[in-house]
Amino acid sequence: MVKRFSMVFLTMILSVVIVLLAAKNPTGPNTVSFDEPAILWLSIGILVVLFLPPLVLSFFNHLVVKIISAIYQAFIVLSFIALIPIGFIGSGFWVTVIAIVGTIVSICSIIVTILVGLKKRNLAIN
Question: Which end of the chain is more exposed for a tag (fewer CB within 10 A), N or C?
């Protein structure tokens, strides 16, 4: 449970860091920036709310719940993968680096979500 929660929480922290890096270097008038802190806080709040389902699901050890959490986290992986070329195009080097790290951590989080507790169950059956 602690491993799953910490991996999802680390992924959420990386997502917040990307929002803050994007706010540091806005690319246009309709993007998040430090000039409008209310919108920045709203963006971070929405991001945290979107991470609540996998955070809550990480406390449960049922196989179906772990599969649902893994599917939800797969969408997060796709979001990080989509941020990699965006970082190359206009947002900067650090957005690309954090997006690559976020992709790796998210994939590891999916693997940990599925595999943690699986060995114990197999040993108990045999």
Answer: C
